[in-house]
Design goal:
13 helices; single chain; globular; alpha/beta; 6-stranded parallel β-sheet; 7-stranded parallel β-sheet
């Protein structure tokens, strides 16, 4: 099986009429407007263009030597564009709204100055809020590496994990609290977390939290923080609605944007036309058997559909696993570890996995179910083509 469609191929944007394309009805599910399939077709650009070379070096930043050693141990020498433009501003204590494509180093952009700030003044406390458990865990891992040997503590507060242990960790007054909105609110209601002493807040993937309805929780958390604070907001996209909300939280924030295009230039994007819905699983298996489909992330819309498709792949001999909201936190963590270590070929996921995850060497992203928005498409396919490597994104269109 070859995945290039007859009517559209890489780099060939022939006009096709998609006006008659409709998703089958499922019960009372409301129909949503479909994206034009031509949005999913784009040929990767040659990587011979001039690469950005930073004029700065981490060694020249006004940060403590302990942190510099940890940065060097990570193999970092020169900051990425978002880091170069953001870190000096944050070191001055100013508020920042940072916008950059996924995989450009946003996490280090806010962790480096904040770790330095807390190391120099131990009374400082930092709240980091993310839309998903996986992203929170990833930030916690990054924190441990940047703060190694600096005697700084962090508490991870996410759903799907034991409340007792999280409350116990909070009782030690950690310098950093990293969590998801729902679990943070739960701990506050149980009087295990008091935000009055937090003078620093980071909202990561702000637009995603707005999209999935966390804005009331975010407003509540912000209201509990110290009125004198440093506020940091990072995302790959900032819509007009998100900007309007951010403006309520910060005064005269510095907006740093290094985003040059919606999707990475080194991702080949194409569509796979599905003429018989019943054959979709078979078509996916045909793709996965092709040479080069070594580490594949498959996105679907529903947790039930993803779980059913995972079982089908496993029954047909594929090494596959899944993450979605019905999985426990330990199951989701194990699935990610298996995929990252390439012990399974395929990770199937709902959009819980599409934001902020840093997974090396994903060869393909397959949208088994088309995304509901172009922003969601951007974030999904951003899991491949990272760190200047070429990636391929395929979207099934019925």
């Amino acid at each position: 099986m070859h995945y290039r469609s007859r009517s559209t191929s890489f780099g060939n944007h022939r006009s096709t009429n998609y006006s008659n394309y409709r998703r089958p009805s499922y019960g009372r599910r409301r129909e949503k407007p479909k994206l034009d399939a031509n949005l999913f077709v784009k040929r990767a650009q040659p990587t011979t263009s001039v690469e950005y070379v930073s004029t700065a070096s981490f060694s020249t930043y006004n940060i403590c030597n302990e942190l510099k050693r940890n940065i060097e141990a990570r193999g970092y020498n020169n900051p990425t564009p978002i880091q170069e433009q953001t870190i000096p501003i944050l070191l001055e204590g100013r508020d920042v709204i940072g916008v950059a494509n996924t995989g450009t180093g946003k996490t280090a952009a806010f962790l480096i100055p904040l770790v330095n700030k807390v190391f120099l003044k131990r009374s400082e406390r930092v709240l980091i809020v993310t839309p998903t458990r996986e992203l929170a865990m990833q930030i916690a891992d990054e924190f441990r590496q940047f703060s190694r040997g600096m005697n700084l503590e962090a508490a991870l507060c996410i759903g799907g994990a034991g409340l007792f242990m999280q409350a116990k960790n909070l009782s030690r007054n950690p310098h950093f609290v990293i969590g998801t909105p729902g679990r943070l609110q739960d701990l506050i209601r149980r009087q295990k977390l008091n935000l009055n002493t937090f003078g620093n807040v980071v909202l990561d993937e702000v637009d995603r939290m707005v999209d999935i309805g966390f804005i009331k929780e975010i407003e509540s958390l912000i209201a509990m923080l110290s009125p004198v604070r440093q506020s940091l907001f990072f995302s790959a996209t900032v819509s007009g609605k998100t900007k309007e909300i951010l403006n309520k939280f910060v005064d005269q924030a510095e907006v740093v944007s290094v985003k040059s295009q919606d999707t990475a230039e080194n991702i080949d994007q194409d569509v796979v036309y599905v003429h018989d819905r019943a054959k979709k699983p078979e078509m996916l298996q045909g793709l996965l058997r092709q040479e080069g489909f070594d580490k594949v992330l498959v996105f679907g819309q529903t947790k039930w559909g993803i779980e059913r498709l995972t079982r089908t792949l496993v029954e047909n001999g594929f090494k596959a696993t899944s993450i979605h909201s019905n999985k426990s936190q330990s199951q989701r963590k194990k699935a990610l570890e298996l995929f990252k270590s390439e012990k399974v070929q395929v990770l199937l996921a709902t959009d819980v996995a599409s934001r902020g995850l840093d997974i090396d060497n994903v060869t393909h992203v397959i949208n088994y179910d088309a995304p509901e928005s172009y922003d969601e498409y951007i974030h999904r396919i951003g899991r491949t083509g990272r760190a200047d490597k070429k990636g391929i994104a395929l979207t099934f269109v019925e």
